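Quick note —
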Amino acid sequence: MKNISIKHLNFAHNAWLRGLGFYELELGFLQERLEEIAGDNTGKEVSEKVEYFQNQLIIHRDYLDNLKHRIHSNMTSLERELKTTSTYVDEATVMAYNQLAEDYFTEDKMFMDLRNEFNRFATEWM
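Predicted structure written out below.
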């Protein structure tokens, strides 16, 4: 089984957690703006879009929570392996890390797309 050094894995985990923290803050700001738009505009067209964005915010919040949990679990696995090998982890843990990386960058893109879509909506209705 191939051994991989974990120095860059730990750095990436922490960078992702900081990124997820930023997205959680951003979700709060988007929620506030959405509530402001909903309070100022009661038409059907706006109500449907408000509901759509509310659902998207909930989905992203849940996904961020799940991703944070998975990152922490992967970090815990790394810690356990380091106690026995001192600097290397097994390939299965690296594969889990690679999946986390893919999931994080996919969420990053989806979040940016949502934020851009929301900003276009907010510009129209604020």
